[in-house]
Design goal:
Blueprint: E1 20-21, H1 23-26, E2 30-31, E3 34-39, E4 42-45, H2 57-61, H3 69-75, H4 79-86, E5 90-94, H5 107-122, H6 130-154, H7 158-183, H8 191-204, H9 210-222, H10 244-251, H11 262-289, H12 293-339, H13 355-362, E6 365-366, H14 370-376, H15 382-387, H16 396-410, E7 416-417, H17 419-443
Parallel strand pairs: 1-5, 6-7
Antiparallel strand pairs: 2-3, 3-4, 4-5
Helix pairs in contact: 5-16, 6-7, 7-8, 7-12, 8-12, 10-17, 11-12, 11-17
Length: 444
């Protein structure tokens, strides 16, 4: 028992007989060159297959040495179909005396969460409304047409251009929320159709890369707010987040920037520059470096369409300036909406929690209203979205009472706040972390 990884997985051939492993043995295989994971008590060696994983090798690597059952269920709309890829990787099962969950996780909580998911499936909450998503795509295209009509009829004056920029910014923001739906496979029953529309929306309507988004965003969902695993909390030494990182930086006398003022320079760096500078550089370099040629073609189709539409009115430089201004405005919209659910929450190193507990610690909700739903792309239901990434967003409100009830049963905090307070909490959290850094830097 616990000494049999050489059969199966690496060779691509199933083991000749069932072998049993303990959690102690499985947890040793969590290295870049040696990855095992457990799904429904079956042990898989994914070391060589990880590089072929459609969602990226990093997201699957983050679950190495753990029970990945809930993550597997969360990300795949047809787990039975995916099982065919797992079968050659099977090397054994958990030993009969081993618990189904690793690291003393609350097995009853885990089972109750899986029962909740089954209830949501029985309620058809994973079934999308074609009308909802058709109207959503329609209102984005309608705004694109409106923008062109307005500049055609009213010219290129400053007021017209400012209104035009606001309309195009709204198109970009809303297309961003829609590509998020397709990227999470929450619209169509077949993954292939979701992938096709995802490439169309993020590529042709936004000029970005579907593969870049997948590989980055799925890591965030698998391990939200966990350093070295969630790319969204890798702040490149520009900010320090949470309660532990600032103290570590302070003790080591690391001062890349005056972090005690990060809540002030946040306004100058993060919202204005994330999309027009950092994301643009990262997207283009990723498509070229990793040879995502289909994504590059889709992105080029966006820029061709945009410049062919607006160069006749603004010229080359004017069109480029307009696009940069739109990206600048969109970046503010994106940053405030996406960070309000996470930066004020717990940000720390890996603690190997169960799926429910890890998602709840890293996310919070914003109060529901028609405006909040539209403005945030239903990311005001961040808790439900993180628990059930493939659930169509128009059903979040239906599963919310079930989630709150389960959290209350186990004393898990379910945090919800007004939109304005959520924005304020971003700045407050950055100030708190900056103060922790300064205290450690001066006194520890």
């Amino acid at each position: 028992m616990g000494k049999g990884g050489e059969q199966g997985g690496d060779s691509g051939e199933p083991a000749a007989q069932i072998r049993f492993y303990t959690w102690e043995e499985i947890q040793k295989h969590n290295l870049r060159t040696d990855k095992w994971l457990v799904i429904e008590r079956k042990v898989y060696n994914v070391t060589k297959w990880a590089n072929r994983h459609p969602g990226g090798q990093r997201v699957i690597s983050h679950c190495a040495g753990e029970d990945a059952t809930d993550a597997f269920q969360a990300f795949h709309i047809n787990p039975t179909l995916v099982q065919k890829f797992l079968k050659p990787l099977l090397i054994g099962e958990l030993a009969p005396g081993e618990p189904s969950q690793d690291r003393d996780k609350n097995s009853q909580l885990v089972e109750d969460f899986r029962t909740l998911r089954k209830t949501a499936e029985d309620m058809n909450l994973f079934r999308a409304s074609p009308l909802f998503f058709s109207l959503y795509l329609g209102h984005i295209i309608a705004m694109e047409v409106l923008a062109w009509l307005m500049v055609s009829y009213f010219g290129t004056g400053w007021i017209t251009t400012l209104i035009l920029a606001c309309i195009l910014t709204t198109c970009q923001a809303q297309a961003g929320w829609l590509q998020h739906d397709f990227g999470h496979l929450s619209v169509f029953k077949k993954s292939s159709w979701n992938h096709i529309f995802h490439k169309f929306v993020i590529g042709h309507l936004k000029g970005a890369s579907a593969n870049w988004w997948n590989h980055r965003h799925f890591q965030h969902h698998a391990k939200p707010n966990i350093f070295k695993k969630d790319p969204d909390v890798n702040m490149l030494h520009i900010f320090v987040l949470g309660d532990t990182q600032p103290v570590e930086y302070g003790k080591k006398k690391l001062k890349y920037l005056p972090y005690n003022h990060q809540h002030e320079y946040f306004f100058l760096i993060f919202p204005p520059l994330l999309i027009p500078v950092y994301f643009q550089i990262q997207i283009i370099s990723t498509m070229i470096r990793r040879r995502f040629w289909a994504d590059l073609a889709w992105a080029i189709s966006y820029y061709l369409r945009y410049f062919l539409t607006y160069i006749p009115f603004y010229g080359i430089l004017g069109s480029l300036g307009l696009l940069t201004f739109v990206r600048f405005l969109e970046s503010h919209w994106f940053v405030w909406v996406t960070q309000m659910n996470h930066i004020p929450m717990e940000i720390d190193s890996e603690k190997h929690r169960d799926w429910l507990s890890s998602q709840m610690a890293a996310t919070c909700n914003i109060e529901q209203s028609f405006f909040n739903d539209w403005f945030t792309g239903h990311l005001n239901f961040q808790i439900e979205h993180h628990l059930f990434p493939t659930m169509p967003r128009h059903n979040f409100w239906k599963v919310k009472p079930l989630v709150k009830s389960l959290c209350a049963k186990y004393g898990v905090q379910y945090e919800e706040k007004p939109l304005g307070k959520a924005f304020v909490d971003i700045v407050g959290s950055l100030k708190k972390s900056g103060d922790l850094w300064l205290d450690a830097y001066l006194h520890k």
